[in-house]
Design goal:
- By secondary structure, the chain is an alpha/beta fold.
- It has 18 helices and 14 strands.
- The protein has two domains: 203 residues, Rossmann fold; 206 residues, Rossmann fold (3-Layer(aba) Sandwich).
- The structure holds uridine-5'-diphosphate-glucuronic acid (UGA).
- This is UDP-glucose 6-dehydrogenase.
């Protein structure tokens, strides 16, 4: 018998949801995406992506029903009724941001999604959580689903964490390092998800089937490990700086050992974004609730090392301009939390620019993609349309997000625009030799001053 392909819905259309929906359509599924914000639904339907994510708009335009010549496999709606009627598999991709003034994350979007969908589920369906949540959430949400859904025990809940990186969302979704699913024994979830992923996605990617708490934990553990790796190398940068060592050479040298690995050892102003910082905090909060807070006290250190990077960059800037920030002009290259993204959530770059502004400097910021988002978050900073404009008359220039275009800057030409040729490289990606040759005082975190 021919099996009909499961029909897929994707709830929440941020980085995760929009990419997942487009990728599922690319694999041939009929997909319905839901967002509670009508403007987003309208944009996405017309094949427009409301954020900067390389390759995503092309993928979306190939399938969005509102785009002429598309496959039409991908539609968007604000209607829960439509989602419940359409889908066999519902992926929950909403945000779990940090709660204001607390370590724990805010589960209200996930809870609201389940509460909106469940009462409309009249036939068997599989709900699949992809959001990053505190361990134990899946079991709680499964109880809630069964209590509210007319289809009762016909509704199952599985956990399928997502590991995509912003800037590489499409690539990571279509070619993941692994697919992890957490299921209850005896249900249909595994078989259904194998069908969803028995596509080019899973070809060559390990498929890990486990229980739900483990699946939830895999995600938080992976992000905690990555954050720890970055803070480890940044701690080494602190020591290098005190001992006249070079953290870039050190990272390269230890990275040759494959047990350590060369990736995620870039020392600099540290990690930011919507994931790593809030995920390690939420993980600590959850461990506390589980009575094992000691298991994760090291993450408190990981967080402190990371936050010290920002303070240290502000301090180096103060030293560079001769002891007082007040009244100086500072050119800042980069606002996004990392290159190839327009995301400024908990961005170290913007945080440093903001601190300097609050200490009385005249700060001008450039970013190739994130200016609009940065302006919304920090309207009192000055924003420039080009790197040259940002550094005009500057007493010191700070390189804070390692966009490719900054590596390609001509230090000699840029030197004509500034008041003083002082470069502080917060990302260790500019070539010290080149800048020094062009008459700049180049200083980087964790490297000898020469
Ligand atoms: C991170 C994880 O890498 C993804 O696997 C995960 O799916 C995602 O969070 C998530 O939980 O949704 P992302 O936040 O997009 O992805 O960005 P990363 O590439 O991990 O970078 C995070 C931060 O670490 C950036 O601010 C970056 O500049 C910084 N970083 C990264 C360093 O300072 N040094 C490094 O060596 C690497």
């Amino acid at each position: 018998a021919t099996r009909v392909a499961p029909r897929i819905t994707v709830i929440g259309t941020g980085y995760l949801g929009a990419t997942h929906a487009a990728a599922m359509a690319e694999l041939g599924f009929e997909v319905l995406g839901l967002d509670v914000v009508p403007e987003k639904v309208e944009l996405l339907s017309r094949g427009r992506v409301p954020m900067y994510e390389p390759g995503l708009e092309e993928l979306l335009r190939r399938h969005a029903a509102g785009v002429e010549g598309s496959t039409g496999r991908l539609r968007f709606t604000t209607s829960w009724r439509e989602v419940a009627d359409f889908g066999d598999v519902h992926f929950v991709c909403v945000n779990t941001p940090q709660r204001h003034g607390e370590y724990a994350c805010d589960m209200s979007y996930v809870d609201a999604a389940i509460d909106s969908l469940a009462p409309l589920l009249e036939r068997p369906a599989l709900v699949v959580g992809k959001s990053t949540v505190p361990v134990g959430s899946a079991a709680r949400l499964a109880d809630r689903l069964r209590e509210l859904a007319p289809a009762g025990p016909g509704v199952e809940l599985a956990w399928n964490p997502e590991f995509l990186r912003e800037g590489f969302a499409v690539e990571d979704t279509l070619h993941p390092d692994r697919v992890v699913i957490g299921v209850e024994p005896g249900g249909r979830a595994e078989e259904l998800l194998r069908r969803v992923y028995a596509t080019p996605i899973a070809e060559g990617s390990p498929f890990v089937v486990t229980d739900r708490p483990t699946a939830e934990l895999v995600k938080t553990a992976a992000n905690a490990f990555l954050a720890t790796k970055i803070s480890f190398i940044n701690a080494m940068a602190e020591v290098c700086e005190a001992a006249d060592g070079d953290v870039v050479r050190l990272a390269e040298a230890i990275g040759h050992d494959d047990r350590i690995g060369a990736k995620f050892l870039r020392a600099g102003i540290g990690f930011g974004g919507g994931c790593l910082p809030k995920d390690i905090r939420a993980f600590m909060a959850r461990a506390g609730e589980l009575g094992v807070d000691q298991a994760l006290t090291f993450l408190r250190e990981v967080d402190s090392v990371n936050m010290r990077r920002r303070a240290h960059m502000v301090e180096l800037t103060r030293q560079a301009v001769g002891g007082s920030i007040l009244g100086t002009r500072i050119g800042v290259l980069g606002a996004a939390f990392k290159p190839d993204s327009d995301d400024v959530r908990d961005s170290p770059a913007l945080n440093i620019a903001g601190q300097l502004h609050l200490q009385g400097a005249q700060v001008t910021v450039h970013d190739p993609k994130a200016t609009e988002n940065a302006r919304r978050l920090f309207p009192t900073l000055t924003y420039a349309g080009s790197a040259e404009e940002a550094v005009r008359g500057a007493d010191v220039v700070l390189h804070l997000t390692e966009w490719r275009e900054y590596r390609e800057l001509d230090p000699a030409a840029l030197g004509e625009a500034v008041a003083h040729r002082r470069m502080l490289d917060g990302r260790n990606t500019l070539d010290p030799e080149v800048w020094r040759k062009a008459g700049w005082t180049y200083r980087a975190l964790g490297r000898p001053t020469v």
